[in-house]
Amino acid sequence: MIPELYGRVGVLVLFGIVFPAIPLIASYAFYMLKLRPENPDPVKSATYECGVEAEGNAWGQFNARYYLFALGFVIFDVEVVFLYPWAVEHLSLNTDALFKAGIFVGVLAFGLAYAWRRRALDWR
Amino acid sequence: MNSTLRQGRRRPAAKVPLGLMIVGAVFALGFLAVNAAIGYVVIDGRLDGQWYDIRDLGIAVEELKVQLDAINDDQPSFLDDIVGQHWMSYAVGALLGAIGILSFIGGALLALIWIERRLIGRMQIRRGPNRVGPYGLLQPVADAVKLIQKEVLMPDGADRILFLLPPAIIFVPMMAAWGPVPWAPQMAYLDINVGVLYLIAVSSLTTLAVFLAGWASNNHYALLGSMRTVAMMISYEIPLSIALLSVVLITGSMQLSEIVQWQADHNLWLAALLPIAMLTYFFSSTAELNRTPNDIAEAESEIVAGFHTEYSGMKFGLFYAVELGNALLVATLVATFFLGGWSLFGLEEWIPGYLILFAKLSAAYFVLVWLRGTLPRFRLDQLMRFAWQYLIPLSLFNLIIVAVEASLLARWDAPGLVSLGLFTIVNWGAAYILFRDWARRIGYQPDAGGPRRAELTQQVGGIEAAHRMGTAT
Fold first, then answer.
1. pLDDT at residue B63 is higher than 80
2. Number of helices (H) and strands (E), helices first, in chain B?
3. For residues B148-158, average pLDDT
4. Do residue A9 and residue B222 have CB atoms under 8 angstroms apart?
5. Which of A27, A88, A101 comes nearest B403 by C-beta?
6. Nearest CA in chain B to A24
7. What digits encode the pLDDT tens for the residues B270-279?
8. Chain A residues touching B252 at Cβ < 8 A
């Protein structure tokens, strides 16, 4: 029964694409009917930076601080997803599983403490 | 100062027009008459099945399915093999549910824009929109019309294809995340047994569309805004998942309808049992919304409008609509996970479940608006610290506590009142100690004498005083 349910996700996704498309198409139709303006000029379609002319390209190197947080996120989120099957099943497991999950969370917490100690969690 | 304020001329209170009163009275009488007719037919026993049962639309859909299957049996089709069941009832059920969800979101979006702006206006001692239509009710429609008529700009430096994609695809995760919400006992569109995981997976897809928007604009402000959004969203994703993990631990299921059923069976909202999980979930999901206390991604005073700086006209309107829709979704999920969903201590026998859920999600949404109206914007480093050094350690502690409690609950043969009552007291104590002491541990020092009240607002007396001064319009 379960795999069939995912067809419904497809219907929702389809609606999620069609629903925002309606106002966009309406906006385009207004343009075709000359109900809305469309007069681009070089100044208007320049990159908006509060009136100052844009200096260079935005597609360059970026701050490396984000990298540390992304790394932390990957580790934590993957581990948390591993905990979900245990959370569902733990009522039928014996006490052993609780301690093992405790060790798992402990290792996770140790990693967090290590990152904290190395000042990886400070936004400097 | 007070006396000068009070001397202003007093405006008469707004009157309800007579026409509106007559229409309302006619509507109420008609509603009563229809209800009486339905009640008469039901008591009379003329309707055998459960067709008339509007408390749970799932029952009506089941009935429709049986009839469709009967038609389907006469004309078998190759589509049956693909879907694995009768294709007709499958397609009709899916379409009906999706249309229902879509129309709920559409209607709620129109209403919410007005409600939110009025509420924020009240909180900021002004009126909010009150010009277009009665009480300004048509303001959202006017906004939509204005946005459709506006010129759509395409910046020269942007990546043309990637620039057009985000407004179109940002709706998809929001729509898909509405699927597993249980509206009534049998009324869930997508009752999958991995509902919680599905929600986490789908809702984090928004990040991609936001990043795409910022990247494709080729604008420094937009890129900064989208990088901030990504950093914040992935940081708050972790406490959010751990908070939901403790919900799964206690209820033993990832299916949203089962989680609500557990709360209905035990007559206990998880907000009472798991205060840390609820507050963590609420804080983290408000951070993911990009709304005012946490809207560093589109902080007007710093980076213009963040990731949608270059978007104008209807494309901006879509970003705005998705933001509101996500706020509504968060309110719904808080109501479902922690406030009992469609259950209300036995009253769900009499009141339709979706109305109860709607009341609860409105309450949760009001808290979101309240936060937006009162709190100032946080800085990026404050937000990141709050996630990594406060919420994540707290939710890990909470996870351990809840895991031990859940194991005890499975083995201890005590009545629910004793065990769950004890756990509730323990959890509230733990919440108080952890929230207070961990904040001090990472360096929060409360001001002596507590926070100061906003004196000016109190002296002036809010919107009443504005009334007296005759300046409120």
1. no
2. 22, 2
3. 80
4. no
5. A101
6. B314
7. 888 889 999 9
8. 88, 90-91
Q: In this structure, are A37 and A67 located in the same domain? A: no
The answer to whether the beta carbons of residues B171 and B326 sit under 8 Å apart is no
Q: Which residues of B339-378 are buried (b: 16+ CB within 10 A; e: fewer)?
A: bbbbbbeeebeeebbbbbbbebbeebbeebbebbbeeeeb
- pLDDT at residue A54 tops 90: no
Q: Which of B171, B196, B399 sits opposite A105 (nearest CB)?
A: B399
Cβ B97–A81 below 8 Å, yes or no?
no
Give domain status of residue B122, yes or no: no
- How far is residue B189 from each of residues B61, B82, B98, B132, B179, measured CA to CA in Å? 11, 20, 8, 36, 5
Task: Specify whether the CB–CB gap between B134 and B20 falls below 8 A.
Answer: yes
Number of domains in chain B: 2
- Does residue A72 share a domain with residue A42? no
What number is the ipTM of this complex? 0.86
Average pLDDT of span B432-455: 75
Judgement on whether residues A69 and A114 belong to the same structural domain of the protein: yes
Mean pLDDT across B278-288: 88
What's the CA gap between B406 and A121, in Å, rounded?
31
Domain span at B285: 150-443
* Tens digits of residue pLDDT in B23-32: 999 999 998 9
